[in-house]
UniProtKB/TrEMBL annotation:
Active-site residues, record numbering mapped to chain: 322
General remark: The a and c carboxylates of cobyrinate are activated for nucleophilic attack via formation of a phosphorylated intermediate by ATP. CbiA catalyzes first the amidation of the c-carboxylate, and then that of the a-carboxylate.
Protein name: Cobyrinate a,c-diamide synthase
E.C. designation(s): 6.3.5.11
UniProt domain CobB/CobQ-like glutamine amidotransferase: residue ranges: 243-423
Organism phylogeny: Bacteria, Pseudomonadati, Bacteroidota, Flavobacteriia, Flavobacteriales
Reactions this protein catalyses: cob(II)yrinate + 2 L-glutamine + 2 ATP + 2 H2O = cob(II)yrinate a,c diamide + 2 L-glutamate + 2 ADP + 2 phosphate + 2 H(+)
């Protein structure tokens, strides 16, 4: 049997990620096989999850994924573990449209209890009505108990426990207000090397939680589910060879997207920074990431730039998103307004100067097919002379956006990070480019 629970909070910045990482490391230390998951489209927290537990966090997103796809992800990635730990997104009831797609929404669909992280820095007995409000707001969401974050002293913790006792909610422990220990909020601009620097911080958090949190009680209150049997199968009659860009510059990739590729054929990873040319493949996937941090190295790798351009000009199939799309343009302009030449296939440039945030869920309707995804970037396109396809792109509430999808020959690119975590959706995407 597998134990499963969700970690959430009343709002962002309450300490969900900090507590999640500490608990992941704590369970790992005590020889539990644990699989982390992340609610929402976030690419950063799953990388922290991997650092803490040794297993990459898997996204579960009710906007981008069907219920069946979420169930399959839990089965596939949770099949050899003892604990599924699911970190929520934002506040418990914060969804794309009211509470739709929220952590609470997922908790109800998975019938999984929620462990609430409460920031106690500037509050004592007043946590009682706060917690009680979340417990009573939607009775279909089961609050299994709380952990307090940023507790000032044992006396402070005693007052918080009294509040929990009076409203009949379980308190599993607390994390003191630790100085110089903070996990940064999700944002674009934190590269892999910087994430790895937090390994010792996670150790320190786990050291404290070993003394202040009862992990056994958490597991006891968690949902017990059957050990799943993965139904991952190779799709017959398809032998597509995929080339996937993956290195320091390009690494915003949903594991489910790669799994879908593996079900249709073979996957070969390559590095636009370090390798001389792309692998022999039928379909090239260049995801987003941090190309702005590696502009000089990407621009200097002339043989790789030529290899990708030649593949595209010879009608090779390419799908590029966000940073990958920028890479296929004429040049990327740095924050200092210095232009670095790139693949030079699409006739536009992208610039990091004069940053402007573009953020939100997206539905791209292309030839009657809907592709779900999200947009999150600070760069913009300039000197854009490229043709776009006739696609309708809307946000989470159905309002049209200005986002474009570009297509030249068999190369398609967009700022949208699309989710294609099933073979059927991936085949639709491949067929759109023929």
């Amino acid at each position: 049997m597998i134990k499963q629970f969700i970690i959430s909070a009343p709002s962002s910045n309450a300490g969900k990620t900090t507590l999640t990482l500490g608990l992941l490391r704590l369970f790992k230390r005590n020889n539990y096989a644990i699989q982390p998951f992340k609610v929402g489209p976030d690419y950063i927290d799953p990388k922290f999850h991997e650092l803490a537990s040794g297993k990459v966090g898997i996204n579960l997103d009710l906007f981008m994924m069907t219920q069946n796809e979420i169930d399959n992800s839990l089965k596939l990635y949770g099949k050899d573990v003892e604990v599924n730990c699911i970190e929520g997104v934002m506040g418990l009831f914060d969804g794309a449209n009211k509470d739709l797609g929220s952590t609470a929404d997922l908790a109800k669909k998975l019938k999984t209890p929620v462990l609430m992280v409460i920031d106690a820095k500037a509050v004592a007995y007043s946590v009682a009505p706060l917690i009680q409000g979340f417990v009573n707001f939607d009775k279909d969401v089961k609050i299994m108990g709380v952990i307090f974050n940023r507790v000032g002293s044992e006396r402070h913790y005693a007052m918080l426990k009294d509040a929990c006792k009076d409203i009949g909610i379980i308190c599993f422990g607390y994390l003191p207000n630790l100085k110089n220990i903070e996990i940064p909020s999700r944002h674009l601009g934190l590269n892999i090397q910087e994430i790895e620097k937090f390994d010792t911080v996670i150790d320190q958090i786990a050291d404290v939680l070993e003394e202040t949190v009862n992990r056994n009680d958490i597991l006891e209150a968690s949902k017990e589910i059957e050990t799943p049997v993965s139904d991952k199968k190779r799709v017959k009659e398809h032998t597509i060879t995929f080339g996937v860009a993956k290195d320091e510059a390009f690494n915003f990739i949903y594991p489910q997207n790669i799994t879908a590729m593996e079900q249709l054929g073979d996957v070969h990873f390559f590095s636009p920074i370090h390798d001389k040319e792309i692998p022999d493949c039928d379909f090239l996937y260049v995801a987003g990431g941090y190309p702005e941090y590696y502009l000089e190295a990407l621009s200097a790798n002339k043989s790789m730039l030529a290899s990708i351009r030649q593949f595209a000009e010879n009608k090779g199939q390419i799908y590029a998103e966000c940073g990958g799309m920028m890479y296929l343009g004429n040049a990327i302009i740095s924050e200092n307004n210095e232009a670095f030449k790139m693949v030079n296939y699409f006739d536009f440039q992208s610039t990091i100067a004069n940053k402007k945030l573009h953020l939100g869920y997206r539905t791209s309707r292309i030839n009657q097919h809907d592709f779900k995804g999200h947009e999150f970037h600070y760069s913009s396109l300039i000197n854009d002379n490229e043709a776009t396809i006739n696609a309708t792109i809307t946000n989470a509430v159905g309002v049209h956006t200005a986002t474009k999808i570009y297509k030249k020959q068999n190369v398609m690119a967009s700022y949208v990070h699309h989710y294609f975590g099933s073979p059927e959706t991936l085949l639709q995407l491949i067929n759109e480019k023929k």
